[in-house]
Every structure is written in structure tokens, then in C-alpha cells.
Amino acid sequence: MWFGIISIFPEMFSSIIKFGITNQAIKKKILKIDFWNPRDYSKKNNRSIDDYPYGGGVGMIMKIEPLYLAIQAAKFFIKKKTKVIYLSPQGKKIDQKNILNLSLNKNIILICGRYKGVDERLIKNYVDEEWSIGDYILSGGELPAMVLIDCLVRLIPGVLGKIQSANEDSFFNGLLEHSQFTRPKKFLNHNVPKILLSGNHLKIKQWKLKHSLGKTWKKRPDLLKKLKLNKEEKKLLIDYQNKYKKNNLK
């Protein structure tokens, strides 16, 4: 997978390039990240890439020309079909389903805006999609770009130790992930659920599904409303709810 990053602060991306799964993917040569700084395409002596908005208003707007030239340079470099994404609070909100769809693209250019945003003509004519990581305002698109990269890199075959690691993540199937435990078996008076130590793979699988359903019911009931549960899932959820209510009445 390849990412072309258009940012006036490419140094910020060192935090994901030098560490974690992104670093591992780069070392394995299954991921490549290149950068284009719009300032390098500015015609101003001071390399400025922003100006006052037409019509008045507070703040500065990133100019279309430096960004356009940076996009063209990135496309010329890769010479392959490429999706251009602008990270924006006005974009569609990213969720796991969207991430899975985006992962089908092998080449992605990410535009990291700054100031009050970018010239609308760039978005209308040279951007394929706008994406947002949430309904809040950040200083720029670098952090959202890093979030998007991290989400997508996890899905590249060969990055995680086992493909199940990604398949069992929260939101992968529309549910939150079940509770997780590791050594020691007992800490103070807190024990690992016996079923997870039983070696009975069928019962463990059922336990995981039940607790995935239960955790979603408790923490994100809005997600459950979007799902059509089968007969087994409904039964497991009811069992979880009854036990939960019984324990909380004591």
C-alpha cells in the first residue's frame, strides 16, 4: 500500500513512521509513505500557502495552486490509479465499514488542511472524497491522516501476526470486542473466567460472542440497533442481559 501525504508539517508523521505496526509494515516493504510539502510549490518568496478569504471573514485559507501542484506531483510520482482524500470535519465520518472499503485502494493521497480550510475549488475539482474522524475541530489534518493510516495499515496482509487479530477487533462485525484477559490467572481476588481456561473451543467461542453482544448492549446500544441478530445471537444476548440484571440487583 502507498500513501502520498500532502502536508506543511511532514515531520509530524515521524510518530507513526518510526514506531508500531506502521514502522513494521515499512520495514517489510509492504507499505510506503511519501511526502509533498505545498510550500515547495508556492510562488511567494516566503513560501506562503495561505491568503485572506474572499468576501471577508476571520482566518486564512490555503490557496488552491500550491495544493493542486502538490497533488499533481504525487500523482506523477506514483503513476498509478490513486484516490485523493481530504481530511475535513465536514467529511463523512470514518467507521470500520468505511475503512474496509477504503482498504481496497492500494494508492491513496491524503491532503492535510490547515488554518480555516482550503479553497473550495480544490475540493470540488481535485478531491475524490472527504473524510472526518469526528465532529470536532483540530488544528490540521495531520492527526486525522495518521489515524486513517493506522486503521488501514492494520488490514494489509502480513502486517499483523494473524489476520484474526484484525477480524476480531471492535467494530469489525458491527460489535464491540469481548473482554480480554491474560496472565496471571488470579490477581488479588480477581480471577480469569473459568471458561477461557477450559480448552473447550466451542464454549469459548460462544462466551466471546455473548460478551461481545453484551458489551455492545451496555456501552453502544446504538450499534445493536443497526444489526439483525440471528436466533443464536438473540439467545446469547438475552442470557447476558438476564445475568447482568440479576447481578446488579444484589
What does this molecule look like?
The structure is a single chain. By secondary structure, this protein is α/β, with parallel strands linked by helices. It has two domains: 2-160, SPOUT methyltransferase, trefoil knot domain (Alpha/beta knot), CATH 3.40.1280.10; 168-248, Trp Operon Repressor, Chain A (Orthogonal Bundle). The chain has helices at 14-17, 20-27, 64-78, 96-102, 120-126, 142-153, 163-167, 201-219, 221-224, 231-248; strands at residues 2-6, 32-36, 50-51, 61-62, 83-93, 107-112, 129-132, 186-187, 190-191. The chain has a five-stranded parallel β-sheet with strand order 2-1-6-5-7. Strands 3-4 form a two-stranded antiparallel ribbon. The protein has a two-stranded antiparallel ribbon with strand order 8-9. Strand 8 and strand 9 form a beta hairpin. Helix 8 (201-219) packs across helix 10 (231-248). The longest helix has 19 residues, at 201-219. It is elongated, with a radius of gyration of 23 Å. The model has no long low-confidence stretch (mean pLDDT 93).
